[in-house]
Amino acid sequence: MTWLIIFTMMLVIFASRYLFLEPRLPIKLNHQTQRFLSYSGPAVLTAIWAPIVFLPENNEIDVTYHNPYFIGALVAVIIAWKTKNVLFTAVVSMVVFFCASFLTN
């Protein structure tokens, strides 16, 4: 039964992606729907990173210099804003995060 559910979910997800990605199919979204869907990526990413950064250990908001996740995210935001280089931002923010996590422990 579990395998049936897994394969059914796989087919549903594949079909939903295929309908919008295959250029030969006559399905087109109107401008308002495309604009509405453009907000889903940032919303999902924010839902992923915000709890990790602001609620790291004990489910209490921690925006101090003792929180290495917050320090790394703050450095990442500043570097991304100034340089607009994804690789540089990721590498430097990870180094800052690891250094901050060693210093705070």
Textual characterization of the structure:
There is one protein chain. The chain is built from 5 helices and no strands. The protein is mainly α and 105 residues long. Helix 4 (68-83) packs antiparallel against helix 5. The radius of gyration is 20 Å and the shape is elongated.
Q: How are the elements arranged and paired?
A:
Layout: H1 2-21, H2 31-37, H3 40-54, H4 68-83, H5 86-104
Helix pairs in contact: 4-5
- The total count of helices amounts to 5
Helix content percent band: over 70%
Quantity of strands, as a count:
0
Mean pLDDT: 89
Q: State which percent range the strand residues make up.
A: under 5%
The ordered H/E elements are HHHHH
Main pleated sheet: none
Spatial extent as radius of gyration: 20 Å
What structural category characterises the helix and strand content? Answer: mainly alpha
**Principal-axis shape:** elongated
Task: Tell me the distance between the termini.
Answer: 46 Å
List low-pLDDT spans. none
Brief synopsis:
It contains 5 helices and no strands. The chain is mainly alpha-helical.
Defining key terms:
single chain, 105 residues, mainly alpha, 5 helices, 73% helix
